[in-house]
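TL;DR need structure tokens for one chain.
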Amino acid sequence: MNLIKAAVLISSLMMSLTGYADEWVKVAEKTVNYKTETDKVSVKKAQRQASHIKLVCTQGTVNMHKIELVMADGSDKQVNNLGVLTKGLSSRSISVPEGELKSIELTYDSIGSQTLGVVGATKKGKLEVMVKLKADKD
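>> reply
TL;DR here they are.
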């Protein structure tokens, strides 16, 4: 009898937790050149209520210098020293300040060179910019 009660309790907890689970949504995909550059990603209106962002490397090796989160009210948050991402790795989850996220500015470069890219030794880096939307509180 206790086993049945425990199973019912666990299944009901799992159902309630899945209702609150947040999912990552892809905002943009960027191809990273071999020289240091800064790219701006505009966030769509429906995705501005983000709680966190992260970057996922889908190709090559990317050296992340800085991320700047620009909010709709004009404030910003800078994150430095993000390190190197290789194919299949993602950055840590970065919390977004309260308010609407207007844009994300990424400063980065791809490790390698154009000459090595031509012969197939290295590929330009590719990143996916992901946001986790805030849970609706009804």
